[in-house]
Design goal:
Layout lengths: L1 H27 L2 H24 L5 E2 L2 E2 H28 L1 H6 L2 H7 L4 H7 L6 H18 L6 H26 L11 H9 L7 H4 L3 H21 L5 H26 L8
Antiparallel strand pairs: 1-2
Helix pairs in contact: 2-3, 2-7, 3-7, 3-8, 3-11, 8-9, 8-11, 8-12, 11-12
């Protein structure tokens, strides 16, 4: 237990240094802030229009009303478009380069966990613009829909949101680890970005698909839908257990799979 506490303090200290380093880097590239603001507004408007079109001839879609779908979009932009993109996207972008050009060699020699270093080295602060705008949007939508924000619903949303992000992170890491064997797969990140958009829709959408497709993408749909249900006061214990169990299970699996894959890693020099 003492060793675990010491390691946690050590990694928290390292992460604080990374936060500070990336903050100073963000100050140098101020244009990223404006790009993040512009991109968030454009995608936000596009998402709202899409929901209007989707519900133009029906009061609900797979049991979700128009107002609930608007909240779902807001939560997607908070968790996936905002927090996940801020913390992890840039790190996954460099994943292929690290392995293909042998930069992973130096990282493996560092006295820190390689998965930690690969996952948290860069923080894209401009993504927090999207988080802030999405939070404001979601609060407004909840207010217009007369859905109260309570302390319990907010805390449930934050807790389940953390496990939602953990689930998505683990899925990404499991997929990206395949690059150890196939370093020329440059488009895996683009594929994962495209797949992430599925979480903007209710998980019931996948139920009409084939079983194989459902099983592959189902964990991704949980990342947004269950935290959204917490805000809508419709989440239950089964939802919470399902998301928490999926997040912890996939995260554990991502660690084991990464350590297994490293046995087959050969540096750029051979």
């Amino acid at each position: 237990m003492l060793i675990l506490v010491i390691n946690m303090k050590r990694y928290l200290s390292i992460y604080r240094c990374l936060l500070l380093l990336n903050y100073h880097r963000a100050l140098i590239h101020k244009a990223d802030f404006l790009n993040g603001l512009f991109g968030s507004i454009i995608w936000g408007v596009f998402s709202i229009v899409a929901i209007f079109i989707l519900t133009s001839r029906s009061a609900s879609v797979f049991g979700w009303s128009r107002e609930e779908l608007f909240v779902l979009i807001g939560v997607f932009n908070i968790l996936i478009g905002g927090v996940f993109r801020t913390l992890f996207s840039r790190n996954f972008d460099r994943f292929t380069h690290m392995i293909q050009y042998g930069d992973l060699d130096g990282l493996l020699l560092k006295p820190i966990d390689s998965q930690f270093a690969l996952s948290f080295w860069y923080i894209s602060y401009h993504g927090m613009v999207r988080v802030a705008l999405s939070v404001i949007y979601t609060v407004i939508v909840l207010s217009l829909a007369h859905i109260p924000l309570t302390f319990f619903s907010v805390m449930s949303f934050i807790s389940l949101g953390i496990f939602g992000i953990m689930t998505l992170y683990a899925v990404w890491y499991l997929v990206m680890t395949i690059i150890i064997w196939f370093p020329d797969l440059h488009n895996l990140v683009e594929m994962l970005f495209a797949v992430d958009t599925l979480s903007r829709y209710p998980p019931q959408v996948l139920w009409a698909m084939r079983v194989a497709v459902f099983l592959i993408f189902f964990p991704i749909t949980l990342t947004v839908s269950i935290p959204t249900k917490a805000l809508l006061h419709t989440a239950n214990g089964t939802d919470a257990v399902l998301l928490i169990g999926t997040g912890l299970g996939l995260f554990y699996l991502s660690q084991k799979f990464w350590k297994f894959a490293l046995r087959y890693y050969t540096s750029a020099s051979g």
